[in-house]
Amino acid sequence: MTPTRSMSMTNGFDPAQPTRLGVTTSQLMQRRERTLGAPYRLFYQRPVHLTHGSGVLLFDDEGNEYLDAYNNVPVVGHSNPRVQRAVNDQLGRLNTHTRYLTDGVVDYAEELLDLFPPSLSQVMFTCTGSEAVDLAIRVARLYTGAQGVIATRHAYHGTTQATVELSPALGPNRTPSPAVILIDAPDMLRDDPSTTARDFACRVEAAIAEFQRRGIKFAGLILDSVLSSDGLQVDPIGLLGPAVNAVHHHDGLFVADEVQAGFGRTGSQWWGFARHHVVPDLVVLGKPMGNGLPIAGVVGRPELFDRFSRETRYFNTFGGTPVTVAAAAAVLTELKERDLLANGERVGHLLRQEIEMMTSSNPAVAQIRAAGLFLAVELVDTSTLLPDPAAAAAVVNHMRDNHILIS
Questions:
Q1: pTM
Q2: Between residues 273 and 173, the one the model is more confident about
Q3: Helix 322-337 and helix 103-113: axis angle, to 10°?
């Protein structure tokens, strides 16, 4: 029997390492491990015991203040007053499952779909991004009559049985499926920028050819639109275009996973795929959609959903309930009225400039990549130019100790 390999998480708590924790925090961690079990991992070598948050700030049990530069779920801020009022008001009026006719979900769907290309004119709601990816893959496979799906080698797309197969970032102890092929993502640091888009498309073509060799029909390509789990690969503009063209040439579908990049995190555009001037067949939404309430969804072309509806049944008890929709609608209002996309572009530009200036003389800082407030710093071993996870962990934990939360 092949032994399983252990998994490390650069920003994760390792109970085997010595750490300095207060009595209250240590006791809470012991209770958590006893009741929730080992799968519930914590961030940072000194986990943060949070009690409340406001805007961009979080506060621990001793009253210390932290700048939250990591958590993209509360996209309009922790304890946002508009979201809080909308949820409270709706909860006091009506909250039921989705088989009844209600105004809010239709109003919200219309407002949401106005932010997409015209061909993407329908949405199906779920509770989580994992559910939404799972649903999108089901739709793609049923519509194409095929099974083969391509993903990138360090992708993360969810935790359901189907999405784990597409999520190598979860670790090495997964049973590979012959219907999933992983390919290398573009690498802004090491690729030739003049050929990286074409080279990526060639890897897509090679994966499609491998499916043919296996006797498996090709269904589609799923990508996090900014390749965040692959190191945040956002440039050059148009990077994904040739790969998407190759997918469509072989009658496959392109699924854009916007769970990380969506709702303006990349700055001046609502969706990560818009940076590359491509139109997906299906778009997956999640995390920031309800500012922490469980709402997610799949946006797509009507003919895909029509085919799906004719050939199978779909029902989600809590996907798009009045309360979660109220939260999601309040998020859109906040993003628009406060002009937060433009703000993200502006502040992200300033942040990148400052980090570039601070690190210009440090050879271990190989590259800084950014789109809006989505920013990555690549740290390398200067002797090999390979990624340096120990240095990354040191920076992450140093920042945590100085009350700035990053990953």
A1: 0.94
A2: 273
A3: 40
